[in-house]
């Protein structure tokens, strides 16, 4: 006899039931409605892309499966499950550029896969939602993506002002590096990594990392960027310039990076973004300039932005926690050029749907904390199945989900089944009810509420709360009242 396989999920892949699935679908429906209202069209691309189309995610190896899940097609070409939704967009834009409206504005959502080590909150498969504009170099395109993202996050369930999109510009950072005389790419990367730790280590810790280095609590030493004290203070002044309004921040940044060609270009782009955001009605409480934002700067070419949750959040144990980033994006003008050889401007915003749903739950703002089950029609007799199905059909035609119990258990087990489904009500129809043209409706919502308060079983049995026998023609309205009360 062959050995039975063990029922187990692959590491980094999870199963989601009703509550989580309903919450994520609700988020996607709300955000899609916003994106379409702004003139962005939906686009779906296949799960697989040729591996060479994934660009920087291709490893230097014979088998391209490091970071991605890849397989070889029958024509010996390597295909990989998409790592994100941006690389497929770049390929699609390059492949169809002549026939696309320009700029091309699209949004997309779907699963992406990463062949990385899984960990707490880190999965190998998750759903992303992106919106991008390809073909516009105007800073106003960045501003529009930012403003639309603000509206999308609020439509998903975040109250106005409960998240802020922090905005920086790659060109400002390049201008800063020029101003302090840094030309080595390795030294630049060390400086940016130090800046990225500002929230965790504070200015004093970052100051050490900008200089000779820092020893942490465990005694481990991290080598610093080797800046002299004056240069280190200039970097810290740059990161601190984001306190205040957007115009005030621009003035402070001009003192630090103004005078370099690239720095001035970055300042002009942020100024144009500020003007557009004001026209779009997006204040500093929802979109702020923050020079400490360091996001994928090997990938982005101009503006970069990151959405940070401001609401108080609790972990699974009820303890306060900092949730941090819930999405981000920026300008990437080099991606389409990988296919065409011609620089094509592009900008976009992306968020992980599961992460946003988790953030909403942690903040007590989840759009769907439970997944309601259907009304369950109790089945007493095989001979009456056609009648039970007719009743379920009538309920569904009234716009209320309903099902007939199709197991083989008795009345008690059927009621338990309905309760486990979180059904709002059960419909009981025996021979007497069928003959009289009536139905009995058990309000399970009310039953669950009363059960949590009743300690005397005799009282429970005697009162039979929430049960009523009504004419069959009144069934839909009675069920609607139960649903509205729930």
Automatic annotation (TrEMBL):
Primary location class: cytoplasm
Domain of life of the native organism: Bacteria
Coiled coil spans: none
GO cellular component: cytoplasm
InterPro entries: aa-tRNA-synth_II, aa-tRNA-synth_II/BPL/LPL, Anticodon-bd, Anticodon-bd_dom_sf, His-tRNA-ligase, HisRS-like_core, HisRS/HisZ, HisRS_anticodon
Enzyme Commission code(s) on record: 6.1.1.21
Biological-process GO terms, alphabetical: histidyl-tRNA aminoacylation
Keyword Protein biosynthesis: yes
Location within or outside the cell: Cytoplasm
Binding, L-histidine: 84-86, 114, 128, 132, 295, 299-300
CDD domains: HisRS-like_core, HisRS_anticodon
Keyword terms of this UniProt record: Aminoacyl-tRNA synthetase, ATP-binding, Cytoplasm, Ligase, Nucleotide-binding, Protein biosynthesis
GO molecular function, one term: histidine-tRNA ligase activity
Reactions catalysed: tRNA(His) + L-histidine + ATP = L-histidyl-tRNA(His) + AMP + diphosphate + H(+)
Record text on subunit structure and interactions: Homodimer.
Protein known as: Histidine--tRNA ligase
Source organism (scientific name): Phenylobacterium kunshanense
Encoding gene (name): hisS
């Amino acid at each position: 006899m062959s050995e039975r396989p063990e029922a187990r999920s692959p590491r980094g892949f999870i199963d989601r039931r009703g509550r989580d699935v309903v919450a994520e679908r609700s988020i996607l429906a709300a955000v899609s409605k916003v994106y379409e209202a702004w003139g962005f069209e939906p686009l779906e691309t296949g799960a697989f892309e040729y591996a060479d189309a994934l660009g920087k995610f291709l490893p230097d190896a014979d088998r391209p499966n490091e970071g991605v899940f890849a397989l070889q097609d029958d024509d010996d070409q390597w295909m990989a499950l998409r790592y994100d939704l941006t690389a497929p967009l770049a390929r699609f834009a390059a492949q169809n550029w002549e026939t696309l409206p320009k700029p091309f504005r699209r949004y997309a959502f779907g699963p992406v896969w990463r062949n990385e080590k899984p960990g707490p909150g880190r999965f190998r498969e998750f759903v992303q939602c992106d919106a991008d504009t390809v073909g516009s170099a105007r800073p106003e395109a960045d501003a529009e993506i930012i403003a639309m993202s603000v509206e999308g996050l609020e439509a998903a369930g975040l109250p106005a002002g409960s998240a802020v999109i922090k905005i920086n510009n790659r060109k400002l950072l390049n201008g800063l590096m020029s101003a302090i005389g840094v030309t080595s790419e390795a030294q630049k990367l060390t400086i940016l990594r130090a800046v990225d730790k500002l929230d965790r280590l504070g200015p004093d810790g970052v100051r050490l990392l900008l200089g000779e280095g820092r020893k942490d609590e465990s005694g481990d030493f991290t080598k610093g960027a080797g800046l002299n004290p004056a240069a280190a203070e200039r970097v810290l002044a740059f990161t601190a310039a984001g306190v205040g309004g957007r115009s005030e921040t621009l003035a402070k940044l001009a003192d630090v990076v103004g005078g370099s060609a690239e720095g001035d270009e970055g300042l002009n782009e942020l100024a144009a973004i500020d003007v557009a955001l004001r026209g779009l009605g997006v204040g500093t409480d929802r979109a702020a300039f923050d020079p400490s934002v360091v996001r994928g700067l090997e990938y982005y070419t101009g503006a970069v932005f990151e959405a940070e949750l401001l609401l108080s959040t609790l972990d699974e144990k009820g303890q306060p926690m900092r949730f941090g980033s819930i999405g981000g994006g920026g300008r990437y003008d080099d991606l389409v050029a990988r296919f065409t050889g011609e620089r094509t401007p592009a900008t976009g915003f992306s968020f992980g749907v599961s992460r946003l749903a988790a953030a909403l739950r942690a903040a007590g703002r989840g759009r769907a904390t439970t997944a309601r089950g259907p009304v369950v029609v109790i089945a007493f007799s095989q001979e009456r199945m056609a009648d039970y199905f007719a009743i379920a059909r009538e309920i569904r035609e009234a716009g209320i989900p309903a099902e007939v119990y199709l197991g083989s258990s008795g009345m008690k087990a059927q009621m338990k089944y309905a309760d486990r489904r979180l059904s709002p009500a059960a419909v009981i129809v025996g021979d007497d009810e069928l003959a009289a043209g009536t139905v009995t409706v058990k309000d399970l919502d009310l039953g669950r509420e009363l059960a949590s308060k009743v300690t005397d079983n005799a009282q429970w049995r005697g009162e039979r709360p929430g049960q009523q026998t009504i004419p069959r023609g009144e069934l839909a309205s009675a069920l609607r009242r139960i649903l509205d009360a729930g």
